[in-house]
Amino acid sequence: MLKWAIIIVAALICVALFMNLWRLIQGPSIQDRILALDTMYINSIALIILYGINVGTGLYFEAALLIAMLGFVSTSALCKYLLRGDLIE
């Protein structure tokens, strides 16, 4: 029963990733594109955690944590670049 739930949730997260990719490509403004990229990070973290649960190892949780940290830093850097036009002050 858990395997079917993981498969269904993984398929729905993949659909969400494709919808985020569409918003990333088609977004009318740069803010929409940054938000879509940030949401793609979150969805990919959820997909990696689901795979880790399915396989039964904790290694994938560390990879998800690494992606979360990189996603936060990159989103912060992109927002700072949009606000000021420069990353280094």
Can you walk me through this structure?
The chain has 89 residues and is mostly helical. The protein has one domain (2-84): Helix Hairpins, CATH 1.10.287. It has helices at 2-26, 30-55, 59-84. The chain is flat and about 50 Å long.
* Main CATH class: Mainly Alpha
* Helical percentage: over 70%
- Estimated share of beta-strand residues: under 5%
Q: Count of DSSP E strands?
A: 0
Under CATH, the topology can be stated as: Helix Hairpins
Number of helices, where a helix is a run of at least 4 consecutive DSSP H or I residues: 3
What is the first-to-last residue Cα distance? 54 Å
What profile does the largest beta sheet have?
none
Our count of domains comes out at 1
**Order of secondary-structure elements:** HHH
Topology, please?
Blueprint: H1 2-26, H2 30-55, H3 59-84
Helix pairs in contact: 1-2, 2-3
Observed structural traits:
89 residues; mainly alpha; Helix Hairpins
Entry summary:
By secondary structure, the chain is an all-alpha fold. The chain has helices spanning 2-26, 30-55, 59-84.
